Amino acid sequence: MDIIVKETGTLNVKRGLAEMLKGGVIMDVVNPEQAKIAEEAGAVAVMALERVPSDIRAQGGVARMSDPEMIIGIQEAVSIPVMAKARIGHIIEARVLEALDIDFIDESEVLTPADDVYHILKSAFRVPFVCGARNLGEALRRVGEGAAMIRTKGEAGTGDVVEAVRHIRRVNEDIQRVVSATPMELMTLAKDMGAPYELVVEVKNLGRLPVVNFAAGGVATPADAALMMELGCDGVFVGSGIFKSGDPARRAKAIVEAVAHYKDAALIADVSKGLGEAMRGQSVAQLDDRDRLAGRGW
Amino acid sequence: MKVGILALQGAVREHRHILHTLGVETVDVLSSCDLDGICGLILPGGESTTMGKLLVRYGLLDPIAELGRRGMPVFGTCTGLILLSKHINHSDQYRLGLMDTFVERNAFGRQLASFEADMYIPVLGKTPFHTVFIRAPYIEKADSNVNILLRYDNRILFAEQDNFLAAAFHPELTDDTRIHAYFLEKAAAFHKI
Fold first, then answer.
1. Predicted TM-score of the model (pTM)
2. CATH annotation of B2-191
3. A–B: how many Cβ contacts below 8 A?
């Protein structure tokens, strides 16, 4: 059969993979054993990292890209997509992850930023990127740089969902402002939000972000995950919430089911029974400003 | 005529959009009661291990397989092609097992090997179809009762067997409605019975 032109690494295939993850749960894992538990529970992808956010928070120090050997071990252990984190602005960590044939890179505020002014030009890569955002302007700046997927920043490693809720509500409110604006108002809106004008126009036409938007940062229970879906997220990242809890395998499975059936409260009640202890967590309201990760990103 | 879309996970919105463009009513299928009164079912792209597990946990696997065996048209894209197949190489994951095909998962490689291309698909006419492959599977081989609709590089990428239709790519990620229209012909024929 004839084929006309074959292209890889295009915007379509980058955004396309994110579309396939919709309605799913992406779980942070630090070794192949955890990756297998995540896959068995029904995760749509795993995020390979050296320390989950709550440990980064507790132990301090500089958080960097993971050891390639650990990433390869996880790639060999599971058949679902494997993601990994690069530091904000760290072009070389991102190139290394691309060389490892990683499926998705998270340019993440959870790691210690490598550049305090610029983000990676993600359109220059063949591998897709996901980035955190707290509002529409930040989301569209990342999309403008080439991100194929957005997630709320939330406040990673706290087990407190309030920031993730704040961020998705803010994105939704910003989208409503754009949708209800007249064409004449869009340039000033773009200026005020710090967003590329063309992408603001696209949001107005679509009535939503041009890429998939997941929840992240503080999701700890099946009900938290379902709440984020109810608020309009396309799926959920769970970091410390699973493997810092009493029974990770059961909690992971319960969160997957709560996301797939987020409108079914009876089902969420059922899967939430006897899950053991949730991660202990830390209230975001009691955090010092310097301990907040969501402020990283420009 | 109502067509169901398996809505446990994956590219549900895109299939819904195309069917609505074609003027067809859709139902999101989350539990077995959603299967009542549909005359066709679409299995969207997503993660096949996730979808297989959720199909089993919520008692959907057997009812869907039974409807398929009774003649209800089922169209699977990517993950859906895997779920439709009787044989999945190197895997014992859950499946509907309705087509006599041997499937290789993630067969082109990881995400960096994902690609898009225009391909000629004779059954759709002379205009090429824009195909998008995301960590795609392919059918390695199929029994003689499977009608092969697209083969490239000795890999089967689009095939049908009676009331079942399977694509390794994602027609739902394009604006081209021809493959969905082709499936709807099967659904309309079933609707008349």
1. 0.96
2. 3.40.50.880
3. 133
